[in-house]
Design goal:
about 190 residues; 7-stranded antiparallel sheet; elongated
Length: about 190
């Protein structure tokens, strides 16, 4: 019986940890940082979400210089990196002070890219960004922990019912009917 209580305690702990983890996966990510982008370079931020989400921010170039903001999915970012630009960005905006809000279409990896062009000179940007949506890694971990907790809880409850009833019929040979004595006339062996 002590073993059952121990397993139930572990299962409840897993359910609590899984619930806290799923809550943490749903909390929006807020970033505030200063970034320097060299002439002709770019700054890249990547994030993954499950389900619908939103990307919002306020980006300010501290010297008043203009820059370009792009938001890509994986295919679009690959196209940007190899300079083919065959896949258009999901969102684009430019200026020296960019305030934006953009709904992300669904689950996947997204890339926010801030671009400086050679003629403009180096950029000094202050970024205030908020990403809303379920974070991929934390959500998957939470689901695994919750599923394990539920499975362990179910198994523990079944063990407690078996112990309350006096053992499992499949595991307890005392509950099986005694074997009947064989009648010699039932013997079908050929000698």
């Amino acid at each position: 019986m002590k073993r059952t209580y121990f397993l139930i305690a572990i299962a409840v702990l897993q359910l609590v940890v899984g619930s806290i983890t799923i809550y943490g996966a749903a909390v929006p990510v807020q970033m505030s940082q200063d970034v320097r982008i060299s002439t002709g370079g770019f700054h890249h931020l990547q994030f993954g979400i499950l389900g619908a989400g939103r990307l919002a921010g306020n980006l300010t170039e501290l010297q008043g210089r203009s820059f370009d903001l792009f938001v890509f999915d994986d295919r679009g970012f690959s196209s940007f990196v190899d300079a083919s630009n065959s896949v258009p960005p999901l969102f684009t905006q430019n200026g020296s002070n960019v305030l934006f809000g953009f709904d992300l279409p669904g689950s996947g990896e997204y890339h926010m890219v801030l671009v400086d062009f050679p003629a403009r000179g180096a950029l000094q940007l202050h970024l205030e960004i908020v990403v809303t949506g379920l974070k991929t890694g934390e959500t998957i971990l939470a689901i695994i922990v919750l599923a394990g907790g539920l499975t362990l809880l179910g198994a523990s409850l079944m063990m407690s019912v078996w112990s309350w009833r006096g053992g499992s019929p499949a595991l307890d040979s005392a509950s099986e009917p005694p074997e009947r004595a064989k009648d010699p006339s039932d013997d079908t062996r050929i000698y």
